[in-house]
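Feature request disguised as a bug report, sorry. It would help if multi-protein outputs had a clear separator. Right now it looks like this:
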Amino acid sequence: MGGETLEEVPRDRRYTKTHEWAKLEEDGAKVRVGLTKHAVEQLGDLTYVEVKPIGTEVKKGEEMGLVESNKAVDHIYAPISGKIVEINSDAGVIEEGGTEITGELEIVSEDPYGNGWIAVLEPSNLKEEWDTLLSPEDYEKLLSGESH
């Protein structure tokens, strides 16, 4: 079976069907984005995480980055529309076109909901898009459907 159990899906954020999470920052003006535990478990050992350059406008559901592992290459999709304003270089995430990984990619695998976040977006359509994301309960239903 594997995957996340009910206790492991944090309640303080929303999710996508493509296994990204979005968490509203305390200031309410930015959204932190990452990969779910399920996603990093499926990928295995990460070798590379890249995000479009800071300042890039992305649309909900559009590719905003790339993740590579010893098992696969997968896209990271924007859970909401907005401008990329921060990239988590401490966790080894690099800007598209960059070459030097300065952080530890293991952080993304070991702490995907905490220090292993990928990027921060300044949302352009938060009100309309937030409620289209999966609630923790709906994300759990998605996972339980995948684990059979």
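(second protein starts here, but nothing in the output says so)
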Amino acid sequence: MDVTKYMKIEGEQPLDNIVQNGGLCGIFRKIACIGDSLSSGEFQSYENGAHGFHDYYEYSWGQYMARDAGCTVYNFSKGGMTAKDYDRFARDKGFFDDEYKAQAYIIALGVNDVSRVLGGELEFGSLEDVNLEDYAKNAATFVGYYAKIIAKYQAIQPKAKFFLVTAPRDGSTSERQEYYDKHAEILHGLAQMFANCYVIDLRKYAPVYDAEFKRSFFLSGHMNAAGYRLTALMMESYIDYFIRHNPEDFTQVSFIGTPYHNANAKW
């Protein structure tokens, strides 16, 4: 057995190695996925001249991860979700309750928020909109709402790990794509502001979601089943990469959500 394959590999970039069976992502027993339609296994139908949108959670990348890694994955997501709307949605669903505490939270929000920004309904904001002392005082911007999600779940599960997901490239140039670049920059900034935060930078390391990619992995404006399967592999492999390259950060994952820890290791 070559154990070095399960450790830090010098010169390796995220997604250079695609794991099977969840890889080291399987050290988490409970994971929560916070997102919109692309986190919900949403499929787009078209019949009799009308489009339909259907959240099939069993096809979500989160549930593919659950089956791969043998862990419990909660879908804290819904088609059309935004960072602004998330707080009320989660409260109504009980997703802030103790029974839904997770060891890791994957946050994949921003697509619908950018649509609202482009439509003049929401300000994008900046890192200055974040109040680290009281998230209730965050500014009413995308950045303020997004940071509130992190802060609120950190208050509920203080040692949980957070993985913030950037938007993949599609090979085009547009105002939307410029906002996605800004979105990625903000997520890296938030990861510096909050403890235990990591950025799954699909914008930098994922394949370009161009026409050829979409021919295989999309069905109209949303992914097809193969696309959600592929996304699960990317999420698992990226988290596996973080664990292998930062083992000291994850050595006490088993104690997250318990009253215990080991004072001789990073906590």
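Even a blank line would do. Unrelated, but nice: The chain has one domain: 11-248.
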